[in-house]
Specification:
TIM Barrel; alpha/beta; 11% strand
């Protein structure tokens, strides 16, 4: 999950350059799409002025699950991205320092609940580096492997696609050179261990590379890791995102092996940050944002569509399917705003052909309350509207 404060980017930075580059193209593209595709939803004045009080605004027509970009319908990787479809992160469990340290222990019933609700996939964040030795050959604890196996098999047995990643490897963000060998060794073990697992198991290289793991360093490491995985998993779908916390503004700086067509590109979305992270205990100054609302106004929705249009255009240009691997609003935001924002993000992702995974199942952003064994129906309905 993104844990940094939103800042105003100085002029001349690569983030601003990336956004500015797309502005004239996207303005033209947006209006062409609006004029030529009657299926794009429009927000009426009534919807803007009178947002629902307890449930999110939903379009009156049924919403499809994510589809592949129509420019490359024949590539198998787009079908694999459709398997991810609508998903949820099982966060705060296996990526905690130890399972349970952050209040979540995975249970079999969670996978059944997720399946019965109608989700297509789960993303399982995993802190492998906390369970691997510090010295060569950097062996992963067999007991921890067994625990991950259990979680993966719980998902697959219910026909849920499942993403496993490396999450919270904080040391590599500060000193990539010192941890490259260990990172590659961890991935080699994961790849060998799961080489015979079904295609519905996806590998995601690393959650939110940032700091010293800048885009140039990350591009080199990602290419090395992909080549390593391909030795044992030649057809495995691999998910990789850009640097700077998997920011969509960094997509232009992501360089992938052109000849590898089994790659899915991911980004994370927590904007407006002062809304989604208001009151977050791990973000300095976040209490000052308490009370921030997301009303679903025309300008709010257009900004969201503009951001996702940029990602969609990038995906089509590079012939890469897109996976929105994280999005969510913290529980200290008011529930009506959370539901409106969640519904808007999920539908915008689907309109642009992205698969997605909500952050997260049963903790601070959760769609399910383990204390009461009840779904947060406002968030669940926002994610999975009634057919």
């Amino acid at each position: 999950m993104k844990i940094w404060q939103e800042i105003i980017t100085p002029r001349g930075s690569k983030r601003q350059e990336a956004r500015m580059k797309w502005i004239p193209i996207l303005i033209i593209f947006f209006f062409l799409i609006s004029a030529c595709q009657p299926g794009m939803p429009q927000t009426s004045p009534q919807e803007i002025e009178s947002p629902p009080m307890n449930t999110p605004t939903l379009n009156s027509t049924p919403q499809p699950t994510p589809v592949a970009s129509p420019t490359t319908p024949g590539e198998p990787i787009y079908q694999k991205n459709r398997w991810l479809g609508r998903g949820v992160n099982l966060g705060n469990a296996l990526e905690a320092p130890t399972e349970g340290a952050w209040g979540v222990v995975l249970k079999e019933e969670y996978f059944q609940l997720i399946h019965e609700a109608g989700f297509n996939s789960v993303r399982i964040p995993i802190r492998w580096n906390a369970h691997a030795s510090d010295a060569p050959p950097y062996t992963i604890d067999p007991a921890f492997f067994e625990r991950v196996d259990w979680a993966v098999n719980q998902a697959l047995s219910r026909d849920l696609a499942v993403v496993v990643n490396i999450h919270h490897y904080e040391e590599i963000f500060q000193n990539p050179k010192a941890h490259t060998e260990r990172f590659l060794a961890i991935w080699e073990q994961i790849a060998v261990h799961y080489r015979d697992y079904p295609e519905k198991l996806f590998f995601e290289l690393l959650n939110e590379p940032h700091d010293a793991l800048d885009y140039e360093t990350w591009n080199r490491l990602a290419s090395q890791t992909i080549a390593l995985i391909r030795k044992t998993n030649p057809e495995r779908a691999i998910i990789v995102g850009p640097a700077e916390w998997n920011s969509l503004t960094q997509l232009d700086y992501l360089k992938l092996p052109e000849d590898d067509r089994n790659l899915i590109v991911t980004f994370h979305y927590y904007l407006p940050f002062h809304f989604t992270h208001q009151g977050a205990e791990w973000v300095s100054g976040a209490n000052a944002w308490l009370g921030t609302k997301w009303q679903g106004s025309d300008i709010e929705r257009q900004l969201l569509r503009f951001d996702f249009l940029a990602a969609m255009v990038w995906g089509r240009e590079h012939k890469r399917p897109i996976y929105l691997g994280e999005f969510g609003a913290y529980s200290k935001a008011d529930l009506d705003s959370r539901a409106r924002w969640t519904e808007a993000v999920a539908r915008a992702a689907e309109e642009n052909g992205f698969s997605w995974a909500y952050w997260e199942f049963c903790a601070g952003f959760g769609v399910y309350d383990p204390a009461t064994n009840q779904w947060n129906m406002a968030i669940r309905n926002a994610l999975l509207p009634a057919k």
